[in-house]
C-alpha cells in the first residue's frame, strides 16, 4: 500500500469500495489482452512518430509502441546502439539518431527494421563501421552519417543496403578513396553520394572500376585532393559534381582522359578553388555539351574575371552562381561574354554600386539575385532586362522606390524587396509589372501605401507587407489586386481597417492581420464584406475586446461563409472580456477557431450555433473556470479541443457534451484533481490526451485513471510519468503513476468464492436449526430478553407508580372507559395506567410500554379478537410475560371480552402458553353476575405477587 493511502481510504470508505468492481473488470481484461501501455516515459507520439528529442536519454526507450513509423531521438546522450533497442519496431520507416554520442553499434542492432527507409546518424562519435553493421536494412534509401569520426569501414558494412539511394558520409576521416570504394561496391542503386571534408588527398577512378554505379550526384568538396584522375567511364549517370576548395589544397591536378566520362554533368561546383585560370580552363574544357550551371562562390578575386569568361565561353552554360566574391561594384566588362546566361546569382558580395550598363550583355536573363548586398537604391541596370522573371533585392539598404525603378520589366513574376529600409510607396512604382505574381515587401519601414495597389498589379497573387509601420488600411486601398490570394499585414501598427478596405479582393483566400493594434469592434466590423472566398483570417494578438455577450447588430464575419480558419487571440492582460453570442454568425464552414488569451469570463451557450462544421477549437488561457455541456451541442464534429489554463475545476461537462468524434484533448494547467471514468467514456474516439500541470489527488478517486493510463491501447496520455500528486499534503510532489492502488481493488473471484460458501453454510445451518431446534431457540430468546429486562429494572428501588397497566386494543376502548375505568378507579380506588392518557409524549412507544408494565404492580390484558391481531398488543403481552417469567410474580391478569375457542387460539403460541399457567376472567359469562366479576377482579388486584402462595381462583367459568 502506498504511503498514506490507507488513511485516505478510511476517510472515503464507501466511495472507494464502489470502484472495486470497475477495477475487477480492468484486471480481467489485462489477463486476456496482452498490453504494453500507451503512455511513454520520455516521448510523445505525433502523427505516428515517437518524438524523444532532447530528453537527456542514455539509452533507446523500450516503451515505444510497435505501431510507430517514425522515431526521433535527436539531441540525447545515447552512446551505444544494442541489439535489443529496436527489436519490436518492425514498422519503423524513419529513425533519427542525430546529435548523440554514439560510438558503437552492435552487429544485428537493425535486423528487425525491415521497413526502415531513412536513418540519420549525423553528429555522433562513430570511429568505424563493423561487419554487417547495417544488416536487415534492405529497404533503406537514405543514410546520413555526417560529422562523425569514421576512419575505417569493414568490407561488409554496407552489404545489406542494396536499395540505398542517398548516402552522406561527409566530415569524417576516411582519408583514402579506397574506403569510399568499400562503401560503393555494395550500393548498386546509389544516386547521391557526399564524402565532403574527409581529408581525401586523391581521387583515382581505377579504384572504382569494379563498381556499377547509377550515381547522379557526387560531393567531393572540402577535400585536399591533389590528384583528380578519371581514366574510365565510372560515372555514366553523373549530373551534379562538387569539387569545391579546401583551405589545405594549393594545387589540384585534373586528369580526365575522355570528355565523354562526364558527358551528363549539368551542374559543376568549384567554389573556393584556388587554382590558376589556365588550369581552370582545362577543367571546364573537360565537360561535354551538358554543362548548364557553374558555381564559383568565394573565389580568389584576381582570377574571377578570367573564370567567368571561361565559364561563359561554354555554349551550354546558362546559370552562374558568384556568391561571396567581394564584388564591391559591377561593370559591363565582368559579364561581357555571358550573353547566354539566364540565371545569375550575385548575392552576398557587399556591392554598393552597379553601373547602368552592367547587365547590357544579359538580355536573355530571367533570374537575377542581388540580395544581401549594400545597394541603397534599385540599380538602373535592371531596366534593360526585358526578359527578367525573378528579381531578388532583399537584404540591402534601399530606402526609396521610384516610378522608373522597374520600368520595362513587364515579364517579371517575382520581386523580393524585403529587409530593406523602404518607408513609403509611390502610386506609380509598380506600373509596368503587369505579370507580377509575388511581391515581398516585409521587414521594411513602410507607413503609407499611397495608392500603389489601386490601379496596377492585376496578376499579383501574393503580397507580403508584414513587419512594417502601417497604421491604417484605407477604403479600397487594394482594389487593383483582383487576382490576390494571400495578403500578409501582420506585425504592423494598424489600428483601423476602414469600411470595405478590402473591396475588390474577391479571390483573396488568406489574410494575416495578427500583431497589430486593433482595439474596437467598429474599427474592423465592415472590413471583410467583399472577401466572399476568404478561407483563412488571422486577427490574433490584437487588443480587440467585448464587454458583453449580448448579440451584435452587425456581426463582423457574417459575409464570410467560406472561411475555414479564424484566429482571434488577444494580447491584453488583466482586462476581462466577453464574446458576443453571435460573434461567429455567418461562418457556416468554419473548421478551426482559436480564441486564446482573450481573458474571457464565460462563453454563451449559443456561441457556436453558427459553426456546425467546427473541428478544432482552442480557448486556452482564459478565465472561464467552468464550461457548459450545452456549449458543445452544435459542434458534434469537433476533433481537437484545447482548454489549457482556463482554471477548470472539473471536466464533468464532457459527460453530456456528446463529443463522440473528439480525438485530441489538451487541458494543461487547470484546477481539476480527478479525471473520472464517465468523462473518458463520453469521448470514445480520443487518441491523444494532454493533462500536464494539473493538481492530481492521489487516492482511490484516481485509481482507475492510473490503471487505464498504463493499460489502454487507444489513447496516448502525454507526459503521464511526470504527473505529480498535490493532495493529500503528505503525498504532495510524489509521481502519480508511482501510487500503489492495489488497496483500491478487490479480488472478486475470491470474494465470490467466500460469499457463495458462506451463503450455502448459513442456509444449511438455518434449515437444520429451523427443523430441529426452533422451539429451543425461541425459548432461549425469551429467556435472554427477560434477562435484559431484568438487568435494566432489577436495581430500581422506587415504588410502583400505578396499581395496574391496562393493555387493550383501541377498538375495545369504549368498554375500558365506560366499564373498567369507573369500577376500578372510581369505586375501588385503584391507580390505573392507560396508554392514551398516561404515556409520555415524544418517547419511543416500546419504552413507554416497558416503563408502564414495570412501573405497575399488575398488568391487565383485555383480550378480544382484535387484541390478538394487534402487533402493539402482542408486544405488550410479550413484555408482561417476560416480567412474569423473570420475576416469578403474579403480575398478569387476563380478561376475555369475547368467547374465543381454543382452536382460534392455536396460532397465538404465546397466549396458549399463558392460559396453561394463568387463570383468567371472562366478561361474556359474567353477564348474569357482573358484581361477582368485579369482585373477583378486585381480589386479583389485592393478591400477593408471589406465585404459589395462597393462589386465588379467579376463574368464573371453565377455560376455553
Number of helices: 17
The span between the termini is: 71 Å
Q: CATH superfamily of the domain at 797-942, please?
A: Toll/interleukin-1 receptor homology (TIR) domain
Name the shape in a single word.
Answer: elongated
Strand content: 5-15%
Fraction of residues in helices?
Answer: 10-25%
Main beta sheet: 29 strands, mixed
Q: Based on DSSP secondary structure assignment, what is the total number of beta strands?
A: 47
Rg value: 50 Å
CATH architecture label name of the domain at 797-942: 3-Layer(aba) Sandwich
> Mean of residue pLDDT?
85
* Alpha-beta classification: alpha/beta
CATH fold node name of the domain at 797-942: Rossmann fold
The CATH class of the domain at 797-942: Alpha Beta
Low-confidence segments, ≥5 residues, pLDDT <50? Answer: 1-37, 946-960
Keywords: Glycoprotein, Immunity, Inflammatory response, Innate immunity, Leucine-rich repeat, Membrane, Receptor, Repeat, Signal, Transmembrane, Transmembrane helix
Protein name: Toll-like receptor 22
Domain TIR: 800-941
Membrane topology: Single-pass type I membrane protein
Amino acid at each position: 500500500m502506498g504511503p498514506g493511502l490507507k488513511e485516505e481510504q478510511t476517510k472515503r470508505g464507501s466511495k472507494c469500495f464502489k470502484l472495486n468492481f470497475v477495477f475487477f473488470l480492468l484486471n480481467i481484461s489485462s489477463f486476456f489482452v496482452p498490453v504494453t501501455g500507451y503512455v511513454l516515459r520520455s516521448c510523445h507520439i505525433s502523427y505516428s512518430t515517437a518524438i524523444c528529442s532532447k530528453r537527456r536519454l542514455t539509452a533507446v526507450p523500450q516503451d515505444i509502441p510497435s505501431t510507430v513509423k517514425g522515431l526521433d531521438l535527436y539531441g540525447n546522450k545515447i552512446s551505444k546502439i544494442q541489439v535489443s533497442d529496436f527489436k519490436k519496431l518492425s514498422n519503423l520507416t524513419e529513425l533519427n539518431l542525430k546529435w548523440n554520442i554514439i560510438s558503437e553499434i552492435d552487429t544485428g542492432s537493425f535486423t528487425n527494421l525491415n521497413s526502415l527507409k531513412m536513418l540519420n546518424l549525423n553528429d555522433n562519435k562513430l570511429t568505424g563501421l563493423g561487419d554487417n553493421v547495417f544488416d536487415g536494412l534492405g529497404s533503406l534509401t537514405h543514410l546520413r552519417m555526417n560529422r562523425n569520426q569514421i576512419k575505417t569501414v569493414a568490407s561488409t558494412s554496407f552489404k545489406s543496403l542494396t536499395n540505398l539511394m542517398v548516402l552522406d558520409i561527409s566530415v569524417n576521416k576516411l582519408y583514402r578513396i579506397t574506403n569510399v570504394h568499400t562503401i560503393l561496391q555494395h550500393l548498386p542503386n546509389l544516386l547521391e553520394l557526399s564524402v565532403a571534408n574527409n581529408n581525401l588527398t586523391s581521387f583515382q577512378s581505377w579504384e572504382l572500376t569494379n563498381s556499377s554505379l547509377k550515381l547522379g550526384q557526387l560531393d567531393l568538396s572540402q577535400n585536399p585532393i591533389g590528384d583528380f584522375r578519371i581514366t574510365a567511364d565510372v560515372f555514366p549517370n553523373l549530373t551534379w559534381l562538387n569539387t569545391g576548395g579546401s583551405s589545405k589544397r594549393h594545387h589540384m591536378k585534373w586528369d580526365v582522359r575522355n570528355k565523354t566520362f562526364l558527358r551528363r554533368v549539368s551542374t559543376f561546383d568549384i567554389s573556393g578553388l584556388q587554382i590558376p585560370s589556365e588550369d581552370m580552363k582545362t577543367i571546364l574544357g573537360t565537360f561535354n555539351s551538358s554543362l548548364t550551371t557553374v558555381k564559383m562562390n568565394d573565389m580568389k578575386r584576381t582570377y574571377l574575371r578570367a573564370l567567368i569568361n571561361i565559364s561563359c565561353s561554354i555554349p551550354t552554360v546558362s546559370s552562374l552562381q558568384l556568391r561571396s566574391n567581394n564584388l564591391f561594384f559591377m561593370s559591363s566588362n565582368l559579364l561581357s561574354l555571358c550573353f547566354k546566361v539566364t540565371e545569375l546569382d550575385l548575392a552576398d558580395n557587399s556591392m554598393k554600386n552597379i553601373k547602368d550598363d552592367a547587365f547590357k550583355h544579359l538580355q536573355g536573363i530571367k533570374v537575377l539575385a542581388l540580395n544581401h548586398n549594400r545597394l541603397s537604391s534599385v540599380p538602373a541596370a535592371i531596366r534593360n532586362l526585358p526578359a527578367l522573371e525573378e528579381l531578388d533585392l532583399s537584404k540591402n539598404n534601399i530606402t526609396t522606390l521610384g516610378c522608373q525603378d522597374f520600368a520595362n520589366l513587364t515579364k517579371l513574376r517575382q520581386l523580393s524587396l524585403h529587409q530593406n529600409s523602404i518607408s513609403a510607396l509611390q502610386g506609380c512604382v509598380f506600373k509596368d509589372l503587369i505579370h507580377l505574381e509575388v511581391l515581398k515587401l516585409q521587414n521594411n519601414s513602410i507607413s503609407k501605401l499611397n495608392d500603389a495597389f489601386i490601379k496596377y498589379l492585376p496578376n499579383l497573387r501574393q503580397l507580403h507587407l508584414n513587419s512594417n509601420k502601417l497604421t491604417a488600411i484605407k477604403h479600397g486601398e487594394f482594389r487593383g489586386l483582383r487576382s490576390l490570394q494571400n495578403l500578409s499585414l501582420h506585425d504592423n501598427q494598424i489600428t483601423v481597417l476602414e469600411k470595405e478596405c478590402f473591396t475588390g479582393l474577391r479571390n483573396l483566400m488568406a489574410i494575416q492581420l495578427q500583431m497589430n493594434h486593433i482595439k474596437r469592434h467598429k474599427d474592423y466590423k465592415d472590413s471583410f464584406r467583399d472577401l466572399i472566398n476568404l478561407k483563412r483570417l488571422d486577427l490574433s494578438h490584437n487588443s480587440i475586446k467585448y464587454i458583453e455577450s449580448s448579440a451584435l447588430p452587425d456581426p463582423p464575419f457574417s459575409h464570410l461563409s467560406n472561411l475555414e480558419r479564424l484566429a482571434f487571440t488577444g494580447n491584453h492582460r488583466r482586462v476581462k472580456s466577453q464574446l458576443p453570442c453571435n460573434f461567429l454568425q455567418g461562418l457556416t464552414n468554419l473548421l478551426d477557431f482559436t480564441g486564446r488569451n482573450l481573458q474571457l469570463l464565460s462563453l454563451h451557450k449559443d456561441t457556436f450555433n453558427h459553426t456546425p462544421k467546427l473541428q478544432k477549437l482552442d480557448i486556452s488561457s482564459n478565465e472561464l473556470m467552468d464550461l457548459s455541456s450545452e456549449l458543445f451541442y452544435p459542434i458534434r464534429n469537433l476533433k481537437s479541443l484545447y482548454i489549457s489554463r482556463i482554471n477548470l475545476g472539473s471536466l464533468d461537462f464532457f459527460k453530456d457534451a456528446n463529443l463522440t468524434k473528439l480525438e485530441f484533448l489538451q487541458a494543461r494547467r487547470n484546477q481539476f484533481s480527478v479525471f473520472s471514468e464517465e468523462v473518458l467514456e463520453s469521448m470514445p474516439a480520443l487518441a491523444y490526451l494532454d493533462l500536464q500541470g494539473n493538481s492530481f489527488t492521489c487516492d482511490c478517486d484516481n485509481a482507475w485513471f492510473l490503471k487505464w493510463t498504463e493499460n489502454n491501447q487507444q489513447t496516448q496520455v502525454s507526459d503521464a510519468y511526470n504527473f505529480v500528486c498535490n493532495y493529500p499534503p503528505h503525498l504532495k510532489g510524489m509521481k502519480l503513476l508511482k501510487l500503489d492502488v492495489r488497496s483500491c481493488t478487490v479480488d472478486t473471484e475470491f470474494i465470490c468464492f467466500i460469499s457463495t460458501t458462506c451463503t450455502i453454510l448459513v442456509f444449511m445451518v438455518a434449515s437444520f436449526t429451523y427443523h430441529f431446534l426452533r422451539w429451543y431457540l425461541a425459548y432461549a430468546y425469551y429467556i435472554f430478553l427477560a434477562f435484559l429486562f431484568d438487568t435494566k429494572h432489577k436495581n430500581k428501588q422506587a415504588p410502583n407508580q400505578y396499581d395496574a397497566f391496562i393493555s387493550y386494543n383501541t377498538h375495545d376502548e369504549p368498554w375500558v372507559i365506560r366499564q373498567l375505568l369507573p369500577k376500578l378507579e372510581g369505586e375501588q380506588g385503584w391507580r390505573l395506567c392507560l396508554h392514551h392518557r398516561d404515556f409520555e409524549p415524544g418517547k419511543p412507544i416500546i419504552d413507554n410500554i416497558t416503563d408502564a408494565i414495570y412501573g405497575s404492580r399488575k398488568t391487565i390484558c383485555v383480550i378480544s379478537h382484535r387484541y390478538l391481531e394487534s402487533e402493539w398488543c402482542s408486544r405488550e403481552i410479550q413484555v408482561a410475560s417476560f416480567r412474569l417469567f423473570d420475576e416469578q410474580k403474579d403480575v398478569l391478569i387476563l380478561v376475555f371480552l369475547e368467547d374465543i375457542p381454543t382452536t382460534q387460539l392455536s396460532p397465538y403460541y404465546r397466549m396458549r402458553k399463558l392460559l396453561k399457567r394463568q387463570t383468567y376472567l371472562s366478561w361474556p359469562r359474567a353477564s348474569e353476575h357482573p358484581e361477582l366479576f368485579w369482585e373477583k377482579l378486585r381480589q386479583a388486584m389485592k393478591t400477593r405477587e408471589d406465585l404459589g402462595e395462597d393462589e386465588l381462583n379467579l376463574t368464573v367459568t371453565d377455560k376455553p
